[in-house]
## 1
Amino acid sequence: MTDHTKRVALLGIPVDIGASQRGTLMGPDALRTAGLPAVLEQLGIAVEDHGNLTIAGAPVADDPPPAKAKQYRDIQTWTRTISPHAHKLMQSGATPLFLGGDHSLAMGTINGVARHWQAQGRELFVLWLDAHADYNTPMTTISGNMHGMSSAFLCGEPGLDGLLGNAEPRAAITPSQLGLFGIRSIDPLEKVLVHERNIPLVDMREIDEFGVGVPIRQTIERVKARNGVLHLSFDVDFLDPTLAPGVGTTVPGGATYREAHLIMELLHDSGLVRSVDIVELNPFLDERGRTARVVVELIASLFGQQITDRRTPSNAIFPGR
């Protein structure tokens, strides 16, 4: 580990129009208020806070919007704004931590991150911690909400081809580079598409049978086998709603406190995570900041906080170059 790699760049992305329940635009500031920068600094990490992104004054496209893609024009503007910012942060050498905002922001963050790693000749894998697969397209969606289309867009599924257009290079990943983890809610046609694409998927039944350690280690080994790097896209509704009520799309039967911490600890030990989304935190629905505090504790585990020194070789989330 080298000191110059121990840098985290925070970027708030206050978008909430991709979901039916408004309020996630308050998520970035709620995470700051819950102490995220201070917790990272206590771990010896230099924190660069780039504030909150805005689309005020951004150019608006005029391509025909697809049917059944709500708020398409605004999401398009957000995606075209987010992607170059994400790419720039990756090039800075810091570990970007994107604070959302609903999960539609991942269409921009991961595209920008993937651009960086494609130029480096490295494969980017995405671990999608979420109650939902978010693999709908305008042709399969029931709700039309675009936060449910974000992982499908990343894998190049048709229907949202104009989202980036010529404004920003599109850097799609393959379905094999996406890992859906913790899934417990999926639409009928979406399920068919996920099956057809043979996307690696760990649902809550598998977690019930084997725990989180076995499938997370399998994910880590799959990335290592291809000399890849990992982007963590963490939807707060991955957690059980009794633990994290501050989300707009609660689904019973989610991850427990210790299961979630173990995932973060194993990811830290792997040294593979180079960028992170935190999405769908809705402070309007939270109970006195309880969900935000839990999320901050989990991110602390991801970045190396532990109770005792386990004496394991750990190049951590900041491996030496």
## 2
Amino acid sequence: MKALVEDVFVGAFGEVAREDAATTRLAELAAHGETLAFTTDSFVVTPLVFPGGDIGKLAVCGTVNDLATAGAVPLQLSCSVILEEGLEIALLRDIVRSMAETARQAGVRIVTGDTKVVPHGACDRLFVNTAGIGVVRRGVAPSSAACRPGDVVLVSGPLGDHGAAILAARGDLALETTVESDCAPLHRLVGRLLDAVPGTCFLRDATRGGLATVLNEAAAASKVGIELSETAVPVRDAVRGLCEILGLDPLYLANEGRMVAVVPGDAAEAALAALRADPLGREAALIGRCVADRPGRVVMDTAFGGRRIVDMLTGEQLPRIC
């Protein structure tokens, strides 16, 4: 175990805590703000490698993005892995290198971790847990309960890429598609938005359950109605086609590199400009607004001139997508 950890993990991550806990000077954290943000997530995606990413990249991006939704600057991550006996070391090396490279690109450090090996059949090849800490930027406080009538809803880019890429990569349905996962760290994109609109009301990365579930949570917490325009919601043709073939709804597909934001109506143009100035937000769009009617309900004006209720996802549309 010592050889595995030293060779595979420490060799990729660089300096990590050799003790039972990593330590950080409080002054280093306080330089960024006054409020600490802390999150954790587990990743069990199958397949482990998919178009546009792998479970290692996904773990770093997912945790960084969870911190970003709190308006935090991500600083440090932990990495714990559960390995099934028999997992190929070459595959593990590739995933760990991907994780280390993604962390470097995101400007965060992996400072501590843990490794366990379980008997064959006790887990599905490789599970990853990451926890992260960051510091909330001064003067910002996004919350699912902060949306008000007159606010507008933005997304940072086309929806459903990750869910569609994972589904196609499994090969169960013999589908061919060029769609790649949108997996990406979004904290710099969020930083641009918060610089332009410090009063941003709500931020959420639309992962499991997709856009529909995220907005239902915001509508319920804020006691507002949310109205969407189907023609304004960006979805790639390849994703839309895949959904039509399989009877899926792109509003519920998982995303790993898309941020949903609610901002005051008078800040819509500034928010869109800030998002589109970032490479990860070039296709950002305004897709709806918050209203006083139908509190707690999300509705959509369809492309055919009708109106439909967009409910919370009540089942598991795609298992093991993150």
## 3
Amino acid sequence: MIRVAINGYGTIGKRVADAISAQDDMVISGVTKTKPSFGCDLAVRKGYPLYCTYDDEQKINAFHDAGYTCHGGLKTLLGVSDVVVDCSPGKHGAANLEKYKNAGIKWIFQGGEKHEMTGLSYTSCANHEQNLHAEGTRVVSCNTTGLSRTLIPLLESCGEISVECTMIRRAADPGDSDKGPINAIKPVLKVPSHHGPDVMSVEPRIKINSLAVAVPTTIMHMHAITVTLPQGHGMTTESILALWKSRPRIIIMNGGETGITTTAEVMEFARDIGRTWGDLHEIFVWEDGVKLVDNTLYYFQAIHQESDVVPENVDAIRALMGTESDWMASVRKTDEAITRMFS
């Protein structure tokens, strides 16, 4: 049984913890919070041992004073774990990485940290094998994960692709009420945006450029993607849709037939099928928004930024621990367990 620590029990951490607890080869050794808060109540209800992010006795005692059983600081938690999933806020990685290495524990960071810090990044469909038995890795961002799931099958089928995409990004997660924009569309003035290079950190053969804008919504990201296929590619719109339907963690629906034509309706669909948190781990592609013209493919996809990376963390754990070398087998095991527990 793989003992997993969650350092940072917030938006991603609480979801990763639940996904891990659903697996029959993993157990949550503990979760951390920086201070007593409503998130501690959730951890207690779930039965996850609670630890303090810091090793300071005064901070640890603050949990006891607030009525919580705190089992110690981060150092203690690392000592009873095999791997730690770092879900702390972005840019905390370098300091945490040193702690993990000193503890001799395997580690996983999220997409808020840079590839250069870890030297290795992870997406199940792109490079599971490269991550086998590694000391640690970084699960790429929600947008990079979404791009990888639909672009990797195209690359494997065609041998080469060139991609231009525009990321229409949510302004903040639903709980981040202090962020914006509120009544504006905000372009990301770093061109290209980081999303293209991030895709190439897991699959360097994909030639990709990306732009990004932030819009005043909190529920999903949207991608508008143009892919240039090589001459003589032999693909059709129908064969591309069939290819995606054969791959895991992609949902394809016809907007005209289902009435699901907006991201709001996509998230309502996730709630209707009974997903915990109202999450959608899959990438949503509109069938009637997919069109291949000669060697140019156009399509839209929607990304639930709070959840598409969650199962990827589970698969990354198996890669680092070397317990499953076949990425499809790991994905199947992960998804079946999550479906049983959360649907």
